[in-house]
Amino acid sequence: MTRTPETIVRQRTERFSARRLGKEIALFDVHSGKTHLLDTSLATIFDLLSDAPKTKGSLIAEAAPLLTLWQGDIENFIDHGLLELQDIGLIDITESS
Fold it and tell me: CA-CA distances (angstroms) from residue 58 to 1, 27, 48, 64, 75?
């Protein structure tokens, strides 16, 4: 039986200094000198990854009740949010075999 690869997401914070601003998070990248602001929804995704790596499916399931989005929009939002967090350098996304 062939296993379908799962997307695994891990938080990476070693090069960032974080500060909470209400429900948002300001992150200073000590390598580039850039500051990034995560809005409430992106901060929610980022926070859900703080305990342990998660599959994309479990992240969607945990985020759904916390985000004020239509059910059909959640997966699309998570996909875009993960790419944005990856571009900043805050997470790693890998495929398991």
Answer: 23, 25, 10, 10, 11
